[in-house]
Design brief:
The protein contains 14 helices and 26 strands. The protein is α/β, with parallel strands linked by helices. The protein folds into three domains: 179 residues, Rossmann fold (3-Layer(aba) Sandwich), CATH 3.40.50; 95 residues, Luciferase, domain 3 (Roll); 108 residues, GMP Synthetase, Chain A, domain 3. Strands 2-1-10-9-11-12-13 form a seven-stranded mixed sheet, sandwiched between helices. A four-stranded parallel sheet has the order 4-3-5-6, covered by helices on one side. β3, α3 and β4 form a beta-alpha-beta unit. The chain is globular and about 70 Å long. The N and C termini lie far apart (50 Å).
Length: 528
């Protein structure tokens, strides 16, 4: 079968590695801007040299092929430098959510076996509950730490030669939410990002000269994908520091954006604000906006002039399901892309008839268009890719005309403000409190189209623990977005005959009269 979207016209299969893509596009597009972050601008013809110098800096620190480099960094130029350096050298980037803390962060560093950790100086406090000396780390560099002996070395003039890599060699390991255990490191090969960039560009209609503006974080697949869209399509990726509802529209105008990126919760947040002339004072024609409830599509387009495109992809897969703006059907994700296969199955992987909800499983025809597994977790890899299909853990319906519709998540995960949260990891922090006997974390409905985190907690006899005490205890040990909003102390948790907590009963009960609300109580948590 022919490759989707005429891929070979862009890069032949063996050329789908970062170094080759950088060199080829530099020769084609010269001084066109590739990335802008604030005042920093990287042009196509400067990207290979930057990659080579960044690779030399890593090499001089003892980093070699397949070594992991952990990075805790926001949307800054240094992130792009380290990404390009790793891809050039054959090292593997491990970007970590800047909100990660405690046991979760320790697990990521230990599981990845990173030899080098690079952290923004302002975020070094996140390491306070990690016990670094017991990890395999050899070197710590700090960004923006002039005068500190651990400061990130300046780029020198030396340039490294690119390692001869194949499209299946790993470029990054991205940690995604664990559902019944610790977070899993998704091994993302070079070619997977080629396909991310090509498929998403095709879906959005990205063309040469477009300006792709995102405030989503580079440590997630969505924003990394934006870089590859720009690289493949001769567009410019612009990274803003963070999402700001009050500055969002002016940011689009300021950057000259023509394409932007939103998550499900962002659209109702923007629409909740009073109408503003700035909503139309920009040049954006389309936004990638998976997970936006159907009722918001038309009103958002009417107010902003921006069409919303839904779809389906995950860190492990690619942009597998979607449709063009003209064919959007609010409430549906779209049809499966050419080059991929999708089925809706029962618990035994038997395909279900149209209209019947079941688990979405996926396959790719092109080599290395999907992730290659979970790092250091062969059992989890086999489980997720059983029968040679990737099992998404998402319940969907395939309609008779081939459109797929999302129903809910089968996994024991919570999604809040665009972040996947492991209930297991939240529970481990709660259970580490000396006054907690047992606890369950679960999602409850949010007014912003996603979830809020709620926990039901059984205290030990005689404990004077308060809900506010438990939240304050959790704050330095969890990402800010995972700290529970709702806490309810209960005498016991509902369990099955074999002692498994029946979370569906907790979800069905949800927020009640006895539930404590952190926001209503005025308890403020820090994002640092």
């Amino acid at each position: 079968m022919s490759e989707p979207l005429g891929a070979a016209a862009f890069f032949a299969p063996h050329d789908r590695v970062l170094a080759t893509m950088l060199r080829r596009q530099a020769a084609r597009h010269g001084d066109r801007p590739l990335v802008r972050i604030g005042a920093w601008c990287l042009r196509f013809n400067d990207a290979p040299e930057l990659a080579a110098r960044s690779a030399a800096r890593l090499r001089d620190a003892g980093v070699g092929a397949r070594d992991r480099v952990a990075l805790i960094c926001g949307n800054r130029a240094e992130f792009i430098e380290i990404l390009l350096g790793c891809g050039w050298l054959g090292a593997v980037l491990v970007p970590i959510n800047t909100a990660s803390r405690g046991a979760q962060l320790r697990h990521m560093l230990a599981n990845s076996g990173a030899r080098l950790l690079i952290v923004e100086a302002d975020l070094v406090g996140s390491l306070s509950h990690v016990d670094l000396p017991t990890l395999p780390l050899e070197t710590l560099w700090l960004i923006d730490a002039a005068g500190d002996p651990r400061a990130l070395p300046a780029l020198g003039s030396a340039a490294a030669e690119p390692l001869a890599l194949g499209p299946g060699d790993p470029l990054a390991i991205l940690y995604t939410s664990g559902t019944t255990g610790p977070s899993k490191g998704v091994i993302c090969p070079h070619a997977q990002y080629f396909w991310w960039g090509l498929n998403t560009s095709h879906l959005l209609g990205v063309v040469e000269g477009d300006v792709l503006c995102t405030s989503l974080p580079l440590f997630h697949t969505n924003a990394l994908n934006t870089f590859f869209q720009a690289l493949i399509s001769a567009a410019t990726a612009v990274y803003e520091p963070r999402f700001s509802a009050s500055d969002f529209w002016r940011s689009l105008a300021r950057t000259g954006a023509t394409v932007t990126y939103l998550l499900g919760a962002m659209v109702p947040i923007l629409l909740s604000r009073s109408p503003d002339p700035a909503e139309r004072a920009h040049g954006v024609r389309v936004a990638l906006a998976p997970g936006v409830p159907a009722q918001f599509h038309a009103v958002f387009a009417q107010r902003s002039g921006i069409g919303l495109i839904d779809g389906y992809g995950s860190t492990e897969t690619n942009f597998v399901i979607g449709t063009s703006l003209s064919e959007q059907r609010p409430g549906a994700m779209g049809k499966v892309f050419h080059g991929f296969a999708a089925r809706v199955v029962d618990d035994a992987d038997n395909e279900l008839p149209d209209g019947t909800p079941g688990e979405l499983i996926l396959r790719a025809e092109a080599p290395f268009a999907f992730a290659t597994g979970y790092f250091g977790m062969p059992d989890k890899t086999v489980e997720a890719w059983r029968n040679l299909w990737f099992h998404t853990g998402d319940r969907v319906i395939r309609e008779a005309d081939g459109h797929f519709k999302f129903v809910d998540r089968m996994k024991d995960a919570i999604r809040r403000r665009g972040e996947n949260i492991s209930s297991y990891e939240v529970e481990q922090v709660l259970l580490s409190h000396p006054d907690v006997a047992t606890a369950a974390a679960f999602p409850v409905a949010s007014s912003l189209a996603e979830d809020e985190v709620m926990c039901a907690v059984v205290k030990k006899p005689g404990s004077a623990l308060t809900e506010a005490d438990l939240v304050r205890y959790s704050t330095p040990r969890l990402p800010y977005f995972a700290v529970p909003r709702y806490v309810e102390f209960v005498d016991e948790l509902p369990v099955t005959e074999n002692g498994k907590i029946q979370k569906y009963k907790l979800r069905e009960r949800g927020v009640g009269e006895k539930t404590w609300d952190r926001e209503a109580a005025g308890v403020v948590i820090s994002r640092r």
